Amino acid sequence: MSVGQKEHRQIFPRPGWVEHDAEEIWHNVVYVVQEALSNAQLQAADLRALGITNQRETTLVWDRATGRPVHNAINWQDTRTDQLIREIGRDGGQDRFRQRCGLPLATYFSGPKLAWMLDHVDGLRARAEAGEVVFGTIDSWLIWKLTGEHVTDVTNASRTMLMDLATLEWDPVLLDAFGVPRAMLPEIRSSSEIYGEARMLGGVPVAAALGDQSAALFGQTCYERGDAKCTYGTGSFLLMNTGPEPVWSTNGLLTTVGYKIGEAAATYALEGSIAVTGALVQWLRDNLELIGSAPEIETLARTVDDNGGCYFVPAFSGLFAPHWRSDARGVIAGLTGYITKGHLARAVLEATAFQTREVVEAMNGDATIDLAALRVDGGMTANNLLMQFLADMLDVPVVRPIVAETPSLGAAYAAGLAVGFWPDTESLRTHWHRAAEWLPRMDPAAREKAYRKWMKTVARTHDWVDDDD
């Protein structure tokens, strides 16, 4: 496997707003493709297919004629649509559209971000109604730049709040509610089929697109009902395969599309989205400067035997699953004169495991399948202290595969299926191999006490944001 990587800027115009420069993303994609080819000593002609995976809810509008973005891409973490969400939710509440799109009303998703752009970028609504501009998540943007086609896949479309989860088509009721013109939307396609040819690579087929968490589910070979994975990055996302029928959550989870391979029926998933996990470690590093690099947090946390009674709920942009409280903000509780920076480091790591347990408990209730094991991936899985505490808190084995970049792997798998490089999903299972496993070993009473304290801390994050904030 060859890897090319390049960071792009996080743009913060004001508190709660997070943007990306889409042209910068495109230039970085061109760079990393060439870097990965060079590192592997390959040419474009050696490629059979190209797959794309992306941050799902990041929202972009660009000129149909010139291809130029009309505004920075609005990132999934952005909360500028909070007031809009409240207004739409006055008629029917947070679950007003859940039975159509599987999602609660929240700032997280693309539809509200697009509605904000249409209302706040000068002249944009008129241009959208005239068909002069188009909308897409980052997969659509990259496919457009590579092939000239305006398409998206079902996994990304399922995160817009604009797609009917049963028909897998844009829903006119949802479009009307958010004021989105149909003419600006991409065509919804499966996750694994040829969309077009990548001109910059001499015509290599662009043959897959999956939102990053669906791609990780696919890359982790979670092809059976009840299989689950969690990706630990800036945020963390736990998905469970629920089979060919959507499972409607009553416990604060999202109902989403896991993947759709060609003409086969879609596979659905339940998802628990956690906004802040790895980002909390970055905050400890960059804002408090208690560590010099992310890996140092494990060393610091190991200077103490436990959290000393300290708990940290990182509701920096509200609470996501299973609470969906945009009015929440972060809390550190249990502070005494005994607490050191080592205890704070422990509390930061443990927050990820506690948040995961909240999601798992909700998922077990919705899916009526108790989680038997959790497959994990992402940068935080290199932290052995965290992975052991995660196994202890979930009371199930936690397993990490040899290939940690599972979103990219899933996109490659789906692209390979589309062009016949692999015959079927069963053949993909043979490529999955375990690299590490953590087994639970915590005393049950200690586990339940720690979780009880965590839930008390979560309750203290609520109702922080006032109407005049």
Helices and strands in order:
Layout: E1 19-20, H1 22-39, E2 50-54, E3 60-63, E4 73-74, H2 82-89, H3 98-101, H4 110-120, H5 124-129, E5 133-136, H6 138-147, E6 151-153, H7 154-157, E7 163-164, E8 169-170, H8 172-178, E9 187-189, E10 192-198, E11 204-211, H9 212-219, E12 228-232, E13 236-243, E14 254-259, E15 267-274, H10 278-286, H11 296-301, E16 311-313, E17 331-333, H12 341-367, E18 374-377, H13 384-394, E19 398-401, H14 406-418, H15 425-429, E20 434-438, H16 444-459
Parallel strand pairs: 2-11, 6-9, 12-18, 18-19
Antiparallel strand pairs: 1-4, 3-5, 7-8, 10-11, 12-13, 13-15, 14-15, 16-17, 19-20
How would you characterize the overall build of this protein?
By secondary structure, the chain is α+β, with helices and mostly antiparallel strands. It is 35% helix and 19% strand. The chain is built from 16 helices and 20 strands. The protein has helices at 22-39, 82-89, 98-101, 110-120, 124-129, 138-147, 154-157, 172-178, 212-219, 278-286, 296-301, 341-367, 384-394, 406-418, 425-429, 444-459, and strands at residues 19-20, 50-54, 60-63, 73-74, 133-136, 151-153, 163-164, 169-170, 187-189, 192-198, 204-211, 228-232, 236-243, 254-259, 267-274, 311-313, 331-333, 374-377, 398-401, 434-438. Strands 14-15-13-12-18-19-20 form a seven-stranded mixed β-sheet. A three-stranded mixed β-sheet has the order 2-11-10, with helices on both faces. Strands 1-4 form a two-stranded antiparallel ribbon. A hairpin with a 5-residue loop joins strand 10 and strand 11 (204-211). Helix 9 crosses helix 14, helix 10 (278-286) runs antiparallel to helix 12 and helix 12 (341-367) crosses helix 13. It is globular, with a radius of gyration of 22 Å. The N and C termini lie far apart (48 Å). The mean pLDDT is 94.
